[in-house]
Amino acid sequence: MAPDPHAPLLQVRGLTARYGHVRALEATDLTVDRGELVAILGPNGAGKSTLLRAILGLVANTGEVRSEGVVLPRADPVAVASAGIVLVPEGRGIFGPMTVAENLRLGAYRVRDRREVERRLARTFELFPRLSERLGQTAGSMSGGEQQMVAIGRALMADPKVLLLDEPSLGLAPRVTAEILETLRRLNQSGLSVVLVEQKAPLALELAVRVHLLSLGRTVAVISPDQVKSHDELARYYFA
Amino acid sequence: MTQADLVLQSLVSGLGIGCVYGLIGIGFCVIYNASGIVNFAQGAFVMLGGMITHVLLVRYHVPYALAAFVAVVAVAAVGVVLERLVVRPLWMRKAPVFVMILATLAAQIVIERVTFLLVDDQPKTLPVFLDWPPIMLGRVAINYQSLFIIAGSLAIVGALALFFKVTLTGKAMRACAIDREAALLQAIPVSTMLALAFALSAGLGAVAGILLTPTQYTAFNVGVPFAISGFIAAIIGGFGRPFGAFVGGLALGLVQSIAILWLGAGLKSAAALSVLLLFLFVRPAGIFGAAK
């Protein structure tokens, strides 16, 4: 099936996922259009990470995931990633013993054209100038913030249609988190579609066009960021 | 010969056999890193390398170099078949690693018996690569086959290091070893990498068998002792560290040759297993520390 340029970049319908016999995600819908940044909020165990992992096919799941109208296989993460749905997992998943240069190169694994790789590298260094100075360094020896830059930089090397981020601020100092989120804002403004799972709700709300609230594996509301702020109970819950 | 000459002479032959153990050990590590499986069919690859070369050379009069090349390619293909036929179906069913290890042991036995049926049970040898008189260093004789073994092994280890360091495929294989899920997320075809790891290990085993057969012999049942030696080499070096395994192989070869000299050939295996026990008791992570 040929891609339909008018269909959403990511459209999830009725996605259900389980770990063994435990259902972690129940019939969830999610739509991301061009240039949108969608935030997923919810308490621990709400199924936020599971949603991202199920989209990639990393956990057993049923339902439908389409990108530009094309149905993506449900148990083939390589196919989903190749279709441009790129996940920066919780804990970053960098290749610690390898250098920054090797990590970035592997992000563009499917690209064999050297000039194209160079072009993507240049774009990544524009966002993260620090990485260009640390190319030979072992990624695992960097600070948490720098490792997150490697992880996001590596994902960008794949030239994603939709970038999925699972708690990029986890374990980072507030100043570093602000830096990372500022980068995400710039990326989003340049047209990249993003799905952001974030515990630190206020940060996510500043960037998002839409917020999905998850609880116990179910979508309880899809609202605008302003509604979250104005809704007393939610505000107390997320800003406490 | 003085005692010192004897020791030197033993060390030279120990170095040669040690290189072979090292190559087999690397084979263990490459598969272990890609899959978490200890592949006990590794010895079958060594046996097949020597055996296929022998059959092509003696029965079909194929030129030596071509026979060796065909043997390496054929054994690499056997490695891929083993992965597709034995390992992958278990992998897809999420079988415990323990079950997959047992399955490779079963595969070892099957390959051994099929070879027995197709060839016979007689020991086979290969001619030395160069039939020149040994080089004399004082009273220590160094035969050319030992030099081929050492030079060939070093060349392979060097080529392997370059492959893992420089090529995109080599880097992708390392990435799979470090974090399989993260590799999937970069669209690296992890299952292809697993097949490639089996091909690479099998090819290495075949080369080890071809290098060694002229100085020893091969027969349908030589696989298991070689697998054990290679396994010990990998343990000494720190399981999962290819270049540690090579150093481990050298150490094992040297210890064994000295044991043969001082304790007699009957205690060769006892010496090797003592080294294994020593490491398991004192330093289970090996010289360089286990990779995972």
TrEMBL record, chain A:
<feature type="domain" description="ABC transporter">
    <location>
        <begin position="10"/>
        <end position="238"/>
    </location>
</feature>
<dbReference type="GO" id="GO:0005524">
    <property type="term" value="F:ATP binding"/>
</dbReference>
<keyword id="KW-0813">Transport</keyword>
<dbReference type="GO" id="GO:0016887">
    <property type="term" value="F:ATP hydrolysis activity"/>
</dbReference>
<keyword id="KW-0067">ATP-binding</keyword>
<dbReference type="GO" id="GO:0015807">
    <property type="term" value="P:L-amino acid transport"/>
</dbReference>
<keyword id="KW-0547">Nucleotide-binding</keyword>
<comment type="similarity">
    <text>Belongs to the ABC transporter superfamily.</text>
</comment>
<dbReference type="InterPro" id="IPR017871">
    <property type="entry name" value="ABC_transporter-like_CS"/>
</dbReference>
<dbReference type="InterPro" id="IPR027417">
    <property type="entry name" value="P-loop_NTPase"/>
</dbReference>
<dbReference type="Pfam" id="PF00005">
    <property type="entry name" value="ABC_tran"/>
</dbReference>
<dbReference type="InterPro" id="IPR003439">
    <property type="entry name" value="ABC_transporter-like_ATP-bd"/>
</dbReference>
<dbReference type="InterPro" id="IPR052156">
    <property type="entry name" value="BCAA_Transport_ATP-bd_LivF"/>
</dbReference>
<dbReference type="InterPro" id="IPR003593">
    <property type="entry name" value="AAA+_ATPase"/>
</dbReference>
<keyword id="KW-0029">Amino-acid transport</keyword>
<dbReference type="GO" id="GO:0015658">
    <property type="term" value="F:branched-chain amino acid transmembrane transporter activity"/>
</dbReference>
<protein>
    <submittedName>
        <fullName>ABC transporter ATP-binding protein</fullName>
    </submittedName>
</protein>
UniProtKB/TrEMBL annotation, chain B:
<comment type="similarity">
    <text>Belongs to the binding-protein-dependent transport system permease family. LivHM subfamily.</text>
</comment>
<feature type="transmembrane region" description="Helical">
    <location>
        <begin position="6"/>
        <end position="30"/>
    </location>
</feature>
<keyword id="KW-1133">Transmembrane helix</keyword>
<dbReference type="GO" id="GO:0005886">
    <property type="term" value="C:plasma membrane"/>
</dbReference>
<keyword id="KW-1003">Cell membrane</keyword>
<feature type="transmembrane region" description="Helical">
    <location>
        <begin position="243"/>
        <end position="265"/>
    </location>
</feature>
<feature type="transmembrane region" description="Helical">
    <location>
        <begin position="97"/>
        <end position="119"/>
    </location>
</feature>
<feature type="transmembrane region" description="Helical">
    <location>
        <begin position="142"/>
        <end position="164"/>
    </location>
</feature>
<dbReference type="GO" id="GO:0022857">
    <property type="term" value="F:transmembrane transporter activity"/>
</dbReference>
<feature type="transmembrane region" description="Helical">
    <location>
        <begin position="271"/>
        <end position="291"/>
    </location>
</feature>
<keyword id="KW-0812">Transmembrane</keyword>
<protein>
    <recommendedName>
        <fullName>ABC transporter permease</fullName>
    </recommendedName>
</protein>
<feature type="transmembrane region" description="Helical">
    <location>
        <begin position="184"/>
        <end position="211"/>
    </location>
</feature>
<feature type="transmembrane region" description="Helical">
    <location>
        <begin position="37"/>
        <end position="58"/>
    </location>
</feature>
<keyword id="KW-0813">Transport</keyword>
<dbReference type="GO" id="GO:0006865">
    <property type="term" value="P:amino acid transport"/>
</dbReference>
<keyword id="KW-0029">Amino-acid transport</keyword>
<keyword id="KW-0472">Membrane</keyword>
<feature type="transmembrane region" description="Helical">
    <location>
        <begin position="217"/>
        <end position="236"/>
    </location>
</feature>
<dbReference type="InterPro" id="IPR052157">
    <property type="entry name" value="BCAA_transport_permease"/>
</dbReference>
<dbReference type="InterPro" id="IPR001851">
    <property type="entry name" value="ABC_transp_permease"/>
</dbReference>
<feature type="transmembrane region" description="Helical">
    <location>
        <begin position="64"/>
        <end position="85"/>
    </location>
</feature>
